[in-house]
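Researcher: Structure prediction, please.
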Amino acid sequence: MNFAELPKIELHCHLDGSLRPETIIDIAQKEGISLPSFIAGEIQKEITAPINCESLDEYLEKFAIPNLVMQSKESLRRITFELFEDAAQEKVKYMEVRFAPLLHTNKGLTIDEIVQSVIDGMREAESRYDIKGNIILSCMRTMSAERAFEVVEQGRKFLGKGVVAIDLCAAEEEGFCHTFVEPIKLARKYGYRVTIHAGETGIGKNVLEAVQLLGAERIGHGVFIKDCPEAYQIVKDQQVVLEMCPTSNVQTKAVSTFHEHPIYHFHKDGIKVTINTDNRTVSDTTMEKECTIVANEFHLSLEDYHQIYLTSVEASFADPQTKERLKGYIAGIG
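Model: Predicted structure follows.
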């Protein structure tokens, strides 16, 4: 299969993990921000996690530099536009981009200004390229439930105007779902869809609780349901969709090698899986690369790809009209 030419859909991509190194340098120079280097190749090294990364925590350290240049309305708009532009150029037809608004208030921006700037960048890309998108607001698990309430409340006015869902992300500890039951409950009441990072670092029970306590419709990663029969069964029975990110999972040591990744076993056993980048820059990847890895490691057939693509369409938080349009891209391929 030539994945360069096939239509693709991405449901799990972090804005702050997907910056162009040249853009980081340009913004830093314009805004007087200090960087460890102003050479693109050096910045690339600073913000890219090695494949032999020690852990998720080490992987997350790579977001420090990007966050420095994501503190103005113009930089947020530009970075979002460029991410959608890069995706469109590899035939990604629809993408949901997630980010944590509270990480971008260091220089006085309000949550309203932050979210609107990201939506503006997405809309500009949609007007220029054959791609559609939506935004997912992430709440940091390292922050309090009160801060999550703040994101849910402030983001509410953007529902249906570019924002579609709420997420919990950052370092994963066992039992984190209990802390965020109330803010996620309120989010669901307001009309947010729910996707939760869980089961990325050896705690399959977190996936079970994300579904039972938070009403998660999709799970970011979910690798470790393989070690928790209850989580595995609820994901399978309730058709909770897994947003899987092979390269990232090898880097964070969720799996040791690509061949050990459970994505294909899950797929063949009736669990709904999707293929995603997680972070294009931090993981030095693209959707084409991720699809190629899965195809090479597990002899993915065109029929398999069709199924995963259509799963991605149905699992997306897009409106019905957009979903029908996305199905059309794959209908004539075979």
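Model: DSSP finds 15 helices and eight strands in the chain.
Researcher: Thanks, that helps.
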